[in-house]
Amino acid sequence: MFRFTAGFGGAGVFICGGVLAGVLGTRAIVVFFSGGGLGMLLTGAVLPWLFELRGPAAWPAAWIATGVVCLPLSVAAIHAARSIAEPSSPHVGADWPWRACLPVLASYFIFGLGYIAYMTFMVAWVRHDAVNAASLATTTSVMWGLLGVMTLLAPLLWARPFDGRRDGRPMGAALFVLTAGAALPLILPNLVGIWLSATLVGGSVFMVPAAVTGFVKNNLARPAWGNAMAIATSLFAIGQTIGPAACGWLSDRAGSLSFGLAVSAMMLLVSGVLALLQKPLA
Predict the structure, then answer these.
(1) Domain residue spans in the chain?
(2) Model pTM score
(3) Which fold has domain 2-86+99-276?
(4) 158 close to 164: Cβ distance less than 8 angstroms
(5) What's the longest Cα–Cα distance across the chain?
(6) In this structure, are residues 139 and 130 in contact, taking their beta carbons and an 8 Å threshold?
(7) CA atoms of 19 and 230, how far apart (whole Å)
(8) What is the mean pLDDT of residues 104-109?
């Protein structure tokens, strides 16, 4: 129940925040979606050491602390939203050519499948398969720290390629970098590979939803933004729901987490190819 509630709220944040950021422009979109990097940086610096000291018993306290941090952020978001004009309406001109957007929608669904498998099982893979790794706390703390730092830097790296593009190339480019990051630990199963993987993944993962939001903003009339983002985010959420279960099942069948991560990287590659098929809307 609590996980469902958190996911439902997270979907609302993605939809509303992405649409409202779209009102301000491309730079605001990439900054909004890179905000998760700060959370990764802070939790990565603290939680692995907490779990090493207290073990699984520390999980409830970690979840409660995360919720407490979200409370003032929610108040700040509500205050900020009051000063932004509503960008869309469900009653006026909300129709949009969804069939013409199928490549980006399918890509976003498969992205949800693939990226969440990496995020879910990467720490377990490090524990069981990494060669010559340092302590789990050190390895995962640096890994999540790099993810967070690169997510914060991503807007600077991607702002120019994203600016004003009306096709699926920005999304495809971000997905190809993400694919390389997801596959790298399988090629270099050591600290260099793990941390370089985190660098590439952090620098690209939140640019995919930013690219989808930018595509919607640059191709559709403003009244259709909310509807289009709701559909896209729903597909993404379905992918996130299926991804961990499918990856876990495949890993169990193969007897190796590496197989599941390889499938994750392949799905991200397919997602990138689909994104490149998306043309600007007339």
Answers:
(1) 2-86+99-276
(2) 0.84
(3) Growth Hormone; Chain: A; (1.20.1250)
(4) no
(5) 60
(6) yes
(7) 10
(8) 96
